[in-house]
From TrEMBL:
Tagged with keyword Transmembrane helix: no
S-S pairs: 78-142, 91-152, 122-132, 249-259, 329-393, 342-403, 373-383, 490-500
PROSITE patterns: SRCR_1 (PS00420), SRCR_2 (PS50287)
Organism this protein belongs to: Echeneis naucrates
Record carries keyword Kinase: no
Cross-referenced SUPFAM superfamilies: SRCR-like
The protein's name: Lysyl oxidase homolog
């Protein structure tokens, strides 16, 4: 999908006054990161005592789904009889002073594997959850829909020692001078965050499998062999502190912390006999090759994509089969399968494997269920999976991913100023003059629209573009006045505004600061999809008398030649069809114009907005538009909804207009303006294109991957 619009194209043949639909194509523009703790006083106790961690999404570091490591397997706790006393015990085990709350019904997503405990009853003073009353280990009648979670007070217990050593953060420290100036960093010494500094890993026994895991964590799909001799002399001159030894990854892990390894004793300085600091080299995906200095480019999959995500490397997983895109069911969806998708698309391993339609619900078929990747496959199509039936899965179970992507530093060259929240404001860019002096400047608001706002919000890391604004006089709180960019034209796919087309020399007719570009970003967005099949099934031709088209003429729903017609005599030839718009996103869709600006139309007998909501175009074989129509947001309402979703919008009695998530708006073929005026079109073969307006709010900015 292009970011600026959703399109539906249908091909028609106009022969002897008859239109025949001949073909149809649609072009559309958990194992989560965890916090683990095992309070212990000895290495022996570490292997014997219970491990507890927080997992799931979305969450902060002090909250999440509770998972227990028992008998070599991670599992969850059922929410039956769960209480704040239980949460207090668990939070203290995790090193927090107390709990502030607990959650039920898998608020942080459904876990996997065993449900270890059920009907847990703590008095609040126990030192471990295993000392509380319960039905016993592994004895539960719950499903993972009932997984319990906790919210801990963000204050650590003084002197708390987490004996379960773990690697939380990894980076590459470049050694070569040129590499230090280039992002992303693809080669260098592996360093892990340790206490207040960074420590190295001894490379004795280091394998290419370890390198694969590190590269995946840093956002790279593939690893490369590195010339150790090139680095040996340089590293021998440095004083290194080796914190980790004997790393033994299998290559399927998504984080170095999941690999077996040995840790140096606390406060001890460990050497690396017969080795040196581990050095790795990674191969970036195509999107990140430009500044990497590498000539060989990797190819990414053309039959897998991510849709619905606000940020690069995240979205609902969609796969292509028989020229039609479909989704993947979330049954048994895990980090290994998610990582295969991420690497296939040119990203690193998966940060999160999301379930429950968290990135919006797809349309069309669900092709895969119970995907079981090992983690080494080149494509999700190489993994074992089950074909789905309508009884197995629904789109509310669509699987999604969040992938690791390389650090590019793009957010450091853009900022918002003057807004009421961090999600809105005037866009300012950091630029350098001929002397290398850096300063902040403005973007000319001329031609600035939603696609440009999409890129700005993505570069800022603030999610979707709600609006792109050409004037920002009401955000005039900055002393920045110089325009540094103009003529910006983005497709919506770019990672930064610098990748968009723009004038080489700034040329802005309205150069005052109040005419600079601004954005309103949002973490959620609506996602509107046209039901293609319904258009095909309901299309027909009608010759409608002019005396029945006065309302349509008033609302500009006829071609220009209608103004020269001999009213009320004669007729117009109309291509009519029904239109059903589904909101499968994560936020309600509302017309851009509020009720205060709606207009009363006596023809229809109610108020409505005249903002154009959808364009209907007829194109010839060369793509030239030969006829057009449009749908204004006359009456956007919840005609019907999915099961368990309540209607919120209706047009009657001056009601609010919009489309609720999980609902759809139906414009029947017999409603005024639900047509294209083809009176002046000659017989022939044509393509019908339906596209949402570029200026509408809630436009989904999903990068095609």
């Amino acid at each position: 999908m292009e970011k600026s619009k959703r399109r539906l194209q249908l091909a028609f043949s106009l022969l002897f006054g008859l239109w025949l639909p001949c073909c149809l194509t649609q072009t559309t523009p958990s194992n989560s990161a965890t916090t683990t703790a095992t309070p212990s006083t000895s290495p022996q106790a570490q292997t014997e005592r219970l491990k507890v961690r927080l997992a799931g999404y979305p969450r902060k570091h002090n909250e999440g789904r509770v998972e227990l490591f028992y008998k070599g397997e991670w599992g969850t706790i059922c929410d039956d009889d769960f209480s704040l006393s239980n949460a207090n015990v668990l939070c203290r085990q995790l090193g927090f002073v107390s709990a502030t709350g607990w959650t039920h019904s898998a608020k942080y997503g459904k876990g996997q594997g065993k449900i270890w405990l059920d009907n847990v009853l703590c008095n609040g003073g126990e030192k471990s959850i295993e000392l509380c009353k319960s039905r016993g280990w592994g004895n539960s009648d719950c499903t993972h829909d009932e997984d319990a979670g906790v919210v801990c007070k963000d204050e650590r217990i003084p002197g708390f020692v987490d004996s379960n050593n773990r690697v939380e953060e990894v980076r590459l420290r470049p050694i070569v001078a040129m590499a230090k100036k280039r992002l992303p960093v693809t080669e260098g010494v592996v360093e892990v965050k340790h206490k207040d500094g960074w420590a190295q890993i001894c490379d004795v026994g280091w394998t290419i499998k370890n390198t694969r895991v590190v590269c995946g964590m840093l956002g790279f799909p593939h690893e490369r062999k590195v010339n150790k001799n090139f680095y040996k002399l340089s590293l021998e001159r440095q004083k290194n502190h080796f914190h980790i030894h004997s790393v033994a990854c299998t290559g399927t892990e998504v984080h170095l912390a999941a690999c077996p390894m040995e840790f140096s004793k606390p406060n001890a300085t460990s050497s690396c006999e017969g080795g040196m600091a581990a050095v790795v080299s990674c191969m970036p995906g195509p999107l990140f090759m430009q500044n990497s200095g590498l000539k060989k480019k990797l190819k990414t999959s053309s039959n897998v994509r991510l849709k619905g995500g606000a940020r690069l490397g995240e979205g609902r997983v969609e796969v292509l089969k028989d020229s039609e895109w479909g989704t993947v069911c979330d049954d048994r969806w895990n980090l290994q399968s998610a990582s295969v998708v991420c690497r296939e698309l040119g990203f690193g391993s998966a940060k999160e494997a999301l379930t429950g339609g968290r990135m919006g619900q797809g349309m069309g078929p669900i092709y895969m269920n119970e995907v079981k990747c090992v983690g080494l496959e080149k494509s999700i199509w190489n993994c074992p999976f089950k074909n789905t039936t309508s009884e197995d899965c629904q789109h509310m179970e669509d699987a999604a991913v969040r992938c690791n992507i390389p650090y590019m530093g793009l957010e450091n060259t853009i900022r918002l100023t003057g807004g009421r929240t961090r999600y809105e404001g005037r866009v300012e860019l950091l630029s350098s003059d001929s002397n290398g002096t850096q300063s902040w400047g403005l973007i000319c608001g001329e031609s600035w629209s939603t696609p440009e706002a999409m890129v700005a919000c993505r570069q800022l890391g603030l999610g979707y573009a709600n609006q792109g604004l050409q004037e920002t006089w009401y955000w005039d709180s900055s002393n920045v006045t110089e325009m540094v960019m103009s003529g910006v034209k983005c497709t919506g796919n770019e990672m930064s505004l610098s990748q968009c087309q723009h004038h080489k020399t700034v040329n802005c007719q309205k150069a005052a600061a109040k005419f600079s570009a601004g954005v309103i970003c949002s973490e959620t967005a609506s996602d509107l999809v046209l039901n293609a099949s319904l258009v095909q099934e309901t299309v027909y031709i009608e010759d409608r008398p002019l005396h029945m088209l006065y309302c349509a003429a008033e609302e500009d729903c006829l071609s220009k030649s209608a103004a020269k017609a001999n009213w009320p005599y004669g007729h117009r030839r109309l291509l009519r069809f029904s239109s059903q718009i589904h909101n499968i996103g994560r936020a309600d869709f509302k017309p851009k114009a509020g009720r205060h600006s709606w207009v009363w139309h006596a023809c229809h007998g109610h108020y409505h907005s005249m903002n154009i909501f959808t364009h209907y175009d007829l194109l010839n074989a060369n793509g030239t538009k030969v006829a057009e129509g449009h749908k204004a947001s006359f009456c956007l309402e919840d005609t019907d909804c999915q099961e368990s979703v309540s209607k919120r919008y209706e047009c009657a009695n001056f009601g609010d207009q919009g489309i609720t998530v999980g609902c759809w708006d139906l414009y029947r073929h017999d409603i005024d303006c639900q047509w294209i005026d083809i009176t002046d079109v000659k017989p022939g073969n044509y393509i019908m294109q339906v596209s949402s307006s570029k200026q509408r709010r809630g436009l989904r900015n999903t990068p095609d991957s």
